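Researcher: Go.
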Amino acid sequence: MSKYYYLIAGLPNIAFDDGKLPYTVLGFKEELLYYLKKKDCRLLDILLLRIDNRNLLKQLQHPGFDFEQGGKVSRDEIAELLDGVRNERDDEKPFRNRNKNIPHYFEELVRMYEQADDETRTHLPWIDILGSQYFSYGLNIENRFVSAWFTLNLDINNILTAMTCRKYKLERANFIIGNTETAEKLRTSNARDFDLGDTLELLPAVMKISDEPDLYLRERRKDRLRWDWLEEQTFACIFDVESVLAYFLKLEIMERWNSLDKAEGERAFRQLAGNMKRGSDNALKEFERNNKK
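Model: Structure:
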């Protein structure tokens, strides 16, 4: 297992409530490419795939979009994938992506999107489909830390979704993603704790977050939960690649909040929360109509 004594020893200490970042996420990523071994760079690329996910979906739905920087897959690589699938002919062998930069689920999504009719393209929740494929991919990564990080985020998102569906009497099975045992119980169980109280340690904390009516505080507490998890997971492996990746993920959390002026960010979040509250019934009804299986 690789050790990064020099790199980690030189990293500035950071805390959840710090107001200033020692690095930008993109700047730190570029620095890591110099230090990390090739197999560990691959783990970093997997964490960054969500940027590539957004770029892929935008290219499918809004060609000519502004390409988001920081991912692994280039605009040209996405264009080549789309052209390969779109230019398939029935009398030829089907296109198969051989670019190792591109995960296999990209081709699956593009093929599904291209084969859909206009009405299906309009109404299917493509972001959820892509999210489900992304989580499935991440859960099967051999590195324990990375796969556990995917599990954590999938479980948090699904629990919050299940609680929202329960509150508004929506069909949970239409909104929970993933094929894990936890996801299945969140889809089907009518118990107050979804029959997960004895097996899912984070359940009480996430259910408490779901009870927070203030969107700003809710998001802060969700990120605090994720931050604390990163601390716990790397306590015993200070100089391993897992600690480097955890530092990177913490920077992402910090950058998310520091990208907003504190006062303006809080005002914007609270205004959004008020708008969501006033329009929640209509929005949820529309969401349910558009996402029926």
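Model: DSSP finds 14 helices and no strands in the chain.
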